[in-house]
């Protein structure tokens, strides 16, 4: 068995390198990787934008949305066997801190997260991974669907944090991968009206195909005015900010209705001008989302049962050897490429 990794050696440059096989520990699984999704954080690294946070991190291996087949089982692992098809949850918490013990392990200060320096990612033919953060895939789920449980978990965690239920009106600011996963989750949780806002008609058309009831092109229309018009001036019960933009973040307090909830999902680095007056006169709430916790079993069941069809967000698929072309497509054609996936035979 020869292991290979797609190593990022410079900005927008990969090299296919032979690397050693992982040494599988007693509580770990050896996994032959079969599918890896390209995430927005991966693209930030690829474009060089993440080096302000992680300087001197090259060479590096990206990829944290992954699924594969077990080829080796650690001696202490009882629930898996060779040949099992699995998805991995890419964050491994310490299991001992107050956050882990309370169930909010996504807030663990010592979490080890794939493709976050210095921890290498899953763009390899073979990896090892802790069994307790690995999930067996049912036969009716593809490897790509297994990899997409990761971004779907973000959407599900956002839906859970929002309190969305049957009859609620929702606005999603941003129609990229996370916005669409949030749409799928909000729809599954019973939202009656889902308004998706984005700059690109291609994203809005995809949102409609996935169940959005209304769309707003934020490049040609005034987002706040259009949402207020669609809701008869009341605003929406829940606003999800998924674009990671200071512009859309500032719009949230104008869009949310009285007694409503704002959920911040996107990763926004700069300071944002925000109207707290809008917030308190509506007695609205702001809640934040950091990754996810306790969502993988829910995501797995939702996809396996057919309640959520996550594979419809995929725009393109590339073989492992063409990882650079896959990343170039994802970065250079954001209008049409919502989610690119890399596959291994």
UniProtKB/TrEMBL annotation:
It holds the Pfam family ADH_N. Belongs to the zinc-containing alcohol dehydrogenase family. Its cofactor is Zn(2+). InterPro entries: ADH-like_C, ADH-like_N, ADH_Zn_CS, D-isomer_DH_CS1, ER, GroES-like_sf, NAD(P)-bd_dom_sf, SDH-like. CDD domains: sorbitol_DH (cd05285). GO terms for molecular function: oxidoreductase activity, acting on the CH-OH group of donors, NAD or NADP as acceptor; zinc ion binding. This is NAD(P)-dependent alcohol dehydrogenase. The lineage of its organism: Bacteria, Bacillati, Bacillota, Clostridia, Eubacteriales. It comes from Agathobaculum faecis. Residues 9-342 form the Enoyl reductase (ER) domain. Keywords: Metal-binding, Oxidoreductase, Zinc.
């Amino acid at each position: 068995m020869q292991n290979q990794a797609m190593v990022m050696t410079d900005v927008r440059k990969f090299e296919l390198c032979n690397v050693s096989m992982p040494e599988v520990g007693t509580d770990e699984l050896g996994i032959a990787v079969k599918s890896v999704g390209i995430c927005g954080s991966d693209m930030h690294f690829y474009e060089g934008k993440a080096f302000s946070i992680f300087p001197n991190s090259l060479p590096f291996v990206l990829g944290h949305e992954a699924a594969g087949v077990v080829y080796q089982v650690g001696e202490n692992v009882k629930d898996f066997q060779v040949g099992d098809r699995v998805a991995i949850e890419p964050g491994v918490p310490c299991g001992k801190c107050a956050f882990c013990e309370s169930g909010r392990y996504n807030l663990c200060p010592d979490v080890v997260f794939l493709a976050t320096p210095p921890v290498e990612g899953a763009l390899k033919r073979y990896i090892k991974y802790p069994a307790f953060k690995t999930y067996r895939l049912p036969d009716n789920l593809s490897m790509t669907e297994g990899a997409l449980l990761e971004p779907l978990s973000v959407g599900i965690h956002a839906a859970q944090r929002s309190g969305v239920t049957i009859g609620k009106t929702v606005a999603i600011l941003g129609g990229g991968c996370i916005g669409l996963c949030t749409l799928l989750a909000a729809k599954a949780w019973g939202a009656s009206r889902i308004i998706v806002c984005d700059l690109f008609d291609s994203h809005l058309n995809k949102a409609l195909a996935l169940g959005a009831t209304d769309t707003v092109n934020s490049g040609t229309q005034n987002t706040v005015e259009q949402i207020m018009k669609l809701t008869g001036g009341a605003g929406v019960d829940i606003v999800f900010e998924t674009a990671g933009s200071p512009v859309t973040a500032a719009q949230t307090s104008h869009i949310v209705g009285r007694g409503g909830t704002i959920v911040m999902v996107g990763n926004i680095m700069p300071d944002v001008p925000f109207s707290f007056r809008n917030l308190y006169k509506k007695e609205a709430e702001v809640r934040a989302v950091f990754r996810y916790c306790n969502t993988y079993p829910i995501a797995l069941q939702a996809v396996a049962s057919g309640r959520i069809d996550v594979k419809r967000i995929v725009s393109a698929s590339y073989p492992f050897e063409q990882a650079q072309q896959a990343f170039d497509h994802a970065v250079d054609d954001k209008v049409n490429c919502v989610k690119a996936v890399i596959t291994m035979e």
